[in-house]
């Protein structure tokens, strides 16, 4: 009796839930979705590996490789906060469900060896 | 009459989390109840020996999904007391806002499960639909829906801007309106009253002697609320504990229902008085000493005992959650009730078994 | 931040010998304190037990040091709600409590085939008989 208003409203208005996966809503800004790395900016300093509470990041400094286990990650955002190069970020969308677990792997560009600056070409003699 | 022993749980349609009771019945009246725990034991206290005190915040948050930020807040308060850190005022107010959001969504969740326990599924669905609005608020302000990781030693990690504050206040107005529509269904319905009034009466002296805490204690007439201790921003906000005197399941339902409105009011007060300032202070060094830290979780009083000796890892982390101490009054309430009232009684203590067993 | 996080010091902690545990708990009960919980930690060759009591938001602790492998009497005669906590400490630290009404004998959280108490650095080997119910 007391819920009559709610019941009638529910009968005559549309769906209460969104028809996912046909309609998805925009994620809120700063939502902690998938963890991605901008490998060009990464300096392989391993701070993210040291601070991670679930120890899901593995950084190989010599080989310049960065691995994360996205199924062990707890999406706390600590690695994003402590990264000194600001190259870690969370995407807005959550990872969809999969059948097999995978590991995300990023290989950094090889480190450029220090090259002495090329001598400036002498001014063309003779002109002309 | 011959006695039969009936196993109740750990998998049962009314139980949200696994707990097992061996009920000794004599002709549908429960004579004795023997609990058995251990289905969700994860050994979180022992992880304090292999993770340093900053990483432990994430682990401690995952003790319980419903009151997660309050666990982190209690832990951070303890570490801050050991290291002598003063948290800035803006961070205290923001911590209070998230804590009250957790309280509102926990009570709405409980209200739905309680209605489901005596068979009222449509009330269950309506309560959880309202709760989705609070989950959206948590996702927009902190990035995660359930495990809200915003606490750190020294303050909070994220800010709430004025446009977001206005949106939160508008959403809370909608939540308040929708919860008020449920009020007469919950409090005046004949069937709801028949299943809850007079069931599981806990007198004031017994509740105190058995160590009950939270709404179980307050619904029996003892006005004790850990928020009166004055942590976070509560000294600046004014509130009085919600107290009922009857001590039965109906009184506990009313107590938790009124706390939803109290939570909404506290968030409004916190936003009105929110000071400017920093979000956190930088903390270096390692803690040493012993501290006992308490907060008021939605289910009651939560106590943390931290022992540190200046090394990288804590020596001992002890968590005592409210459901752990509410199980003792439950074992006192069960004998003498009918078999059909057992789900109502188990849910009236607001069981959070993952907190109990960590 | 007043006294939500109370650092343990001599003003709010008293050290009590093992034999006087029950009589001190009776004093706490008669002056209106409520039993909150017990904490414990490993001190190497002894276990440090802390009993926490609360009255009107003021928390006090009682410290008892129990050598490993020895027994201490349970306070369930004074506070019946201490039963669950004492079972847990018995299981995880190996402290023997005498006079427990329901004794889980080490199966409260852990399985029967766990042999060493988990928390002690130098473990106490359990040799509990099979769990019995009162």
Structural description of this entry:
The complex is a heterotrimer of chains A (128), B (358) and C (134). Helix content of chain A is 15%, strand content 14%. Chain A has 128 residues and is α+β, with helices and mostly antiparallel strands. Chain A has a domain at 25-96: Alpha-Beta Plaits, CATH 3.30.70. The radius of gyration of chain A is 26 Å and the shape is elongated. Chain B has a single domain, classed as Orthogonal Bundle (Cytochrome-c3 Hydrogenase, chain B). Chain B contains twelve helices and eight strands. In chain B, strands 1-2-3 form a three-stranded antiparallel β-sheet, with no helix packed on it. In chain B, a hairpin with a 2-residue loop joins strand 6 (288-297) and strand 7. In chain B, helix 3 runs antiparallel to helix 4 (121-142) and helix 4 runs antiparallel to helix 5 (162-188). The radius of gyration of chain B is 21 Å and the shape is globular. Chain B starts with a strand and ends with a helix. The model of chain B has no long low-confidence stretch (mean pLDDT 87). Chain C is an alpha/beta fold and 134 residues long. Helices cover 16% and strands 31% of the residues of chain C. In chain C, strands 2-5-4-3 form a four-stranded mixed β-sheet, with helices on one face.
Question: How would you summarize what this structure contains?
Answer:
The complex is a heterotrimer of chains A (128), B (358) and C (134). By secondary structure, chain A is of the alpha+beta class.
